[in-house]
Specification:
By secondary structure, the protein is an alpha/beta fold. It has one domain. The chain is built from three helices and five strands, in the order H-E-E-H-E-E-E-H. It has a three-stranded parallel sheet with strand order 1-2-3, sandwiched between helices. Strand 4 and strand 5 form a beta hairpin. The longest helix has 30 residues. GO terms for molecular function: glycosyltransferase activity. Pfam families: Glyco_transf_61. This is Glycosyltransferase 61 catalytic domain-containing protein. It comes from Peronospora effusa.
Length: 133
């Protein structure tokens, strides 16, 4: 994905919050314009997002939980659900699920969201430049 968007003013980071301090988790989340995550406890960090941050929650196909969607609505995020790809289930209670997402399938979902978020970012930057001059 980084190669596809290399000419844009965009940074893609993979962040594992497990070993970060709370301050580092908050800082990374606040600085993000888009957050993509598997469904799970790490999404609790959306509470630190700015309004209109795009959040993509990747779900295993059979799981239906709406707590993080509700948190996103509360703080004003632009929440999206992705259930595509193939689930690889390791046990019967569905608590240990990996997901394989073909690149083309992911990009068909991701591209319009990124274009919308990137367009909104550019509009915001232009407004800030006008206000500063």
């Amino acid at each position: 994905m980084q190669a596809e968007y290399k000419d844009l003013n965009a940074e893609f980071r993979s962040i594992d919050y497990v070993n970060l301090t709370l301050h580092e988790q908050m800082k990374n989340t606040i600085e993000s314009d888009m957050i993509i995550s598997m469904h799970g406890a790490g999404l609790a960090n959306v509470i630190w997002t700015r309004p209109m941050t795009t959040v993509v929650e990747i779900f295993p196909k059979p799981k239906k939980r709406w707590g993080y969607r509700n948190m996103c609505q509360f703080v004003g995020c632009d929440w999206h659900l992705f259930r595509g790809g193939q689930d690889i289930i390791f046990n019967k209670n569905l608590e240990d699920v990996n997901k394989v997402i073909p690149y083309d399938e992911w990009m068909a979902f991701f591209r319009p969201l990124f274009q919308k978020a990137y367009g909104a970012f550019n509009e915001q930057q232009a407004l800030l430049r006008r206000e500063a001059s």
